[in-house]
Amino acid sequence: MKKIFFLLIAASGALSAIAQTNGGTTQSDNSTHQRRWYKHDSLLSRWVIDVNLLGGALTNDYKLNNTSDNYTNGINNNTGTLKFSNGMSYGGDAQIGYFFGKKAHFGVGLGFMYLYQTGDATLKGFQVQYQSTDAYGATFRQVITADHDIKETLTTNNFNIPLVLKYKVRFSRRFGFTADAGILYNLQVQNSYKTNAMFDYEGIYQYSTASGSGGVAVYDNNVTPAANDFLITKANYLKDGNTNGLASYFANEYAHGHNVGYQVTPGSKSGNTNFLAGSVGFLVQPSLNYFLSDNVALNIGGYYLFQPFNNTTPSGYRLTDKVGGYSSVTNAVSTSNSQSYGGNIGVRFFFGRPKDSDGDGIPNKKDKCPYVFGLAQFQGCPDSDGDGIPDAQDSCVDVPGTAQFHGCPDSDGDGIPDKEDSCVYQPGPIQFHGCPDTDGDGIPDKNDKCPTIPGPASNQGCPYDTVKPAPPKRQPEVDPATPILFDLGKATIHESSYDILEEAVLELKDNNDAYLIIDGHTDNTGSPSLNRVLSYKRAEAVKQYLKEMGISEKRLITIGHGEDSPVAPNTTDEGRAKNRRATMTIRHQHEE
């Protein structure tokens, strides 16, 4: 049990450490670029109600009072050993708690706990021999032997008041950690039992004269009965080979006033016993919180509790003495150390709230952003960049902008917000992503070798009859087999791939018998049929570019593979980006 207890403590510490290192103030939603705030512990209500259901294993370490002396003039008495097994514990607790301090991590709680517990108490090896009197007042030696191990099936109603120190920390919008540790004051423990007890009651009579039963009965305290003793025992009945009628024999002797019986079960096989109330144990209960809202959280975790109980054995207690009599084995227990451990699931309710949680001078009931410092003109919501647009409506909360673009700037005034403008400080049309086309030839200046003179794309924007672009320089470090990468769902060639294409052009022009195989590929986004078409379009885009650079169409072969030949796993963004590609392979006629 100590191992389990320390394991729970270690788990509590580990979860608490995670909580401390994962704290934060905001979460970012990439789709809206808005900050999503969550309440920290200091902003949550200080008052909570916890309701938990508990279930797990139960152990009891019993210590029995020595009751041998209660059997008068006993001979080698063995009142047995008691063990507990098959214990289970179910129940729940409800607590009200208050958290204090600036950060509101620590608090106190008081509540009520009920546990319904079950298990088996088994007494082994019971046999006693002692001086007794029969129905006629005659003295004799009573021998009582348990026919088998005595098992009592117990059900226990256990009522307690927990008084605990509470700890909590919230480390994300959805998750937190909490733990309770403290004392458990017991109000009542009531055991109900059902027993399988069965006993053999035997008698040994000794008389003061040799005339047999005509003399005065006296107590024979020798371990071995005297030869002239009158024996009402199984051994004596069976010694002459009698094998039948044993039960009838004992029943007949019982009818004659002797306290004897064979395989006798108690007159009542069930009953109740109580342990003394008022014991003090302790409870440890760590849990992970899942916040359904700022006012309600689920608790999922474990628990460990220890309870010591004391009991006063009734004066003169005997497990049994008269035929059919029985007193529960738990009446002989002097102390019981009870331990229970298992899992718990519950709900925490936060009630009540601070009047001005964020300290911005605007009461919560009038504050649309009650947990973020804000401005009165925005009903308590912040405007981080000071552009007059509250953050909740501002797509660019850290950069001043205009309402027309939802708070984002348009630095060059071309009607395209900076976040969508490829040339932020140069006005340009939307078809070129905000970049200018000074000569109006349909090629944006950043891709135009002759930005002030109209020219075809095949000559990099320069006219053939006036100005020709400088021939591309050979770049030995560029490998034409390098993949040409594309954006998701696109077949547009990036400027970053121009050097690869130009190197391919130079190699084809250097080798007149060479031709080029262009393989197009996609990732696994979308349907296979659409990916097959898109891969072919990517190969065709490369082919078209090479044609504009002066390569004959007859020397260019395009193939679309779709998503069938990935070079990286399609399970990550990085892998999918590598698979959106086209590759060029140079072949020579003499190789065929």
Strand percentage lies at 35-45%
Main sheet properties:
8 strands, antiparallel, barrel
Strand tally is: 21
Low-confidence stretches: 1-36
Q: Give me the secondary-structure category.
A: mainly beta
Percent helix, as a range, is 10-25%
Describe the protein in words.
- The chain folds into three domains: 2-351, no CATH class; 410-470, no CATH class; 477-592, OmpA-like domain (60s Ribosomal Protein L30, Chain: A, 2-Layer Sandwich), CATH 3.30.1330.60.
- It has six helices and 21 strands.
- The chain has helices at 2-21, 234-238, 246-255, 498-510, 528-548, 573-579, and strands at residues 26-29, 34-37, 47-64, 81-100, 106-124, 127-133, 139-146, 150-170, 175-195, 199-207, 217-218, 230-232, 261-264, 270-275, 280-291, 296-310, 333-351, 484-485, 514-520, 556-560, 581-588.
- It has an eight-stranded antiparallel barrel.
- The longest helix has 21 residues, at 528-548.
- The two termini are 79 Å apart.
- The model is unreliable at 1-36 (pLDDT under 50).
